[in-house]
């Protein structure tokens, strides 16, 4: 996997990221979320949002964002996904680690939050995220919403 590069999202990546999204519907995303994802990609602003892509030989394999709210001391993982044909190859782990490393490099960030489904909440628990709220059918008829949080700087007494 050393031939895979992590780099910032560029406007030319739009169709590749949408294709990755489409390949993950309906298990990981509801079809109606596509419009919101497209709008998100079209409005990525590097000052508050870092959206990364994992690329091999010019082909986008995975993508995911980190939205920073400096005033609140938190960041949000957003729209993380891996090409469905490449699931199980640890690309999701690599993408998540890249975003968490980025979060830890931002002064003053205390926590990272995310909203995911029942299909991936266990994956994020592996990084130390803890459920803060579960909303049945929160993303759609078969997609429960799991709001999760990771404290970046736990103290010894916690």
UniProtKB/TrEMBL annotation:
Keywords: Transferase. GO terms for molecular function: acyltransferase activity, transferring groups other than amino-acyl groups. Gene3D superfamilies: 3.40.630.30. The keyword Transferase applies. Residues 4-153 form the N-acetyltransferase domain. InterPro entries: Acyl_CoA_acyltransferase, GNAT_dom. It holds the Pfam family Acetyltransf_1. This is GNAT family N-acetyltransferase. It comes from Paenirhodobacter populi.
């Amino acid at each position: 996997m050393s031939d895979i590069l992590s780099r910032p999202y560029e406007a030319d990546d739009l169709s590749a990221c949408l294709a990755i999204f489409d390949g993950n519907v309906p298990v990981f995303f509801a079809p109606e979320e596509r419009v919101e994802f497209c709008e998100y990609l079209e409005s990525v602003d590097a000052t508050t949002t870092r959206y990364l892509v994992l690329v091999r030989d010019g082909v986008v394999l995975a993508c995911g964002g980190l939205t920073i709210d400096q005033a609140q001391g938190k960041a949000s993982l957003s729209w993380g996904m891996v090409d469905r044909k490449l699931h199980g190859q640890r690309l999701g782990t690599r993408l998540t680690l890249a975003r968490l490393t980025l979060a830890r490099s931002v002064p003053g960030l205390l926590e990272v939050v995310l909203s995911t489904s029942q299909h991936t909440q266990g994956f994020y628990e592996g990084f130390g995220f803890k459920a803060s709220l579960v909303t049945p059918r929160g993303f759609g008829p078969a997609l429960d919403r799991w709001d999760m949080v990771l404290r970046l700087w736990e103290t010894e007494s916690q």
